[in-house]
Amino acid sequence: MPIVLNHTIIPATDKLGSATFFAELMGLAVSPPAGPFVPVRVNDDLTFDFDERGRVEPGHYAFLVDDGTFDAVLERLAQWPAVDYGSAPENGWDRRINRLSGGRGVYVRDPGGHSYELFTAQP
Q1: pTM score of the predicted model
Q2: Residues in CB range of 91: below 8 A, 6 or more apart
Q3: Confidence of residue 91 (pLDDT cuts 50, 70, 90)
């Protein structure tokens, strides 16, 4: 059996707000609370469990996505002027994409300080 990441806990100061932001960004749904967590199912194998019980250290989460998903995320970002995103890390939150590794990429900062990276070609 291959190793498959099943779930990870995402520290948050506002677990519902962070889960909702992530779900809306990625075109996913927030699941009903499960114990102290607000889960978002990323795919058949992975759930992000947002939790506000501990100290929050901003994390970085990277996703290989198809072109349709990438385009949908960019459309949502265009409607959210207050959300920082860009071609980082060299250029910061310049509201542009990068073209590394033969694909497209973007970094998004969530209100809780985490950064999400989406790219269409594997580095």
Answers
A1: 0.93
A2: 98
A3: confident
